[in-house]
Amino acid sequence: MRGTYQPFFVTGLLRSRTGWLANWLTYERSFCWHDAFRWSTQDGLVDSLGLMSQDPERWLDDALEGLPRLFRDTAYRMRLREGRLHGAGVLIGRQVYVGMSDSSCASVWDCLAEMFPDAPWVIIQRPIEEVIESCEGVVSAEWLRQQQQMLEDCAYDTRALVVPFDEIDASLHEIGYHVMGDDFIANTHRDKQLKTWNIQIPMAHIQEAMRSAHREESE
Fold first, then answer.
1. Is the CA virtual torsion 143, 146, 150, 151 positive or negative?
2. Partners of residue 125 on adjacent β-strands
3. Extended strands (E) in 150-215
4. How many CB atoms lie within 10 A of CB 73?
5. Four-point Cα dihedral 141, 145, 147, 148, nearest 10
6. Tell me, what's the pLDDT at 200?
7. Dist. CA 192–CA 212, nearest whole Å
8. Which residues partner with 11 through β-bridges?
9. What are the domain boundaries of the chain?
10. What are the CA-CA distances from residue 161 to residues 91, 135, 156, 158 (Å)?
């Protein structure tokens, strides 16, 4: 039995700690993917940059189509793990949470909201000028401003919890309750440990992804 799960999404502009939040939200009965589209295609983990450069539109359609399957399989594996640890009754009786924390959600938020209409959303709001400076030479200011508009539309339509970038650490439990409700289990010791971690996707990875997309647009 694949069972049910509660999906959720966290997004923001590049360099908004979405990778860090994916780690923080992977705990107990919750699993949060980062860069999930690389795993949700029919072939599983693929050379995303190569496929994007060949046919980015088909790659994205494939990745979106496969996301529910990835979430269901993740939930199933979580239930199997809990069943081994706590007994088979856990497979039926406990809700699990499977989500995605990634800046890429902003570009397709409307598709995700249609696919997962009951999913709670969290949007990290980082000042656009800070992001432009951090991403200088990698992505254009114009593209980032377009992403910001998408985030504003997403926040309005999904009734997202909007968290200022510099208030993430102070808002962790609010984020947890927004995603999981009363099933959220606070762990201040774990919070303290993770706050010392700096988790970032290498800028070279982002730069190559953007170059692949621009090459396709110019052909």
1. positive
2. 164
3. 161-164
4. 15
5. 130
6. 75
7. 38
8. 123
9. 6-218
10. 30, 25, 10, 9
Torsion sign over Cα 137, 141, 146, 152:
positive
* Reported pTM: 0.85
Residue 160 is classified by DSSP as P
Residue 115: which of 177, 64, 61 has the closest Cα? 64
Print burial letters for 139-159: b (CB count within 10 Å at least 16), e (below 16): beeebbeebbebbeebbeebe
Strand segments (E) across 75-174: 97-101, 121-125, 161-164
What DSSP state is assigned to residue 27?
B
Distance CA 149, CA 139 (A): 16
pLDDT less than 70: residues of the chain: 1-3, 42-56, 83-93, 201-219
Tens digits of per-residue pLDDT, 191-209? 999 999 888 766 555 555 5
Cβ proximity of 123 and 171 under 8 Å: no
Q: Which CATH architecture has domain 6-218?
A: 3-Layer(aba) Sandwich (3.40)
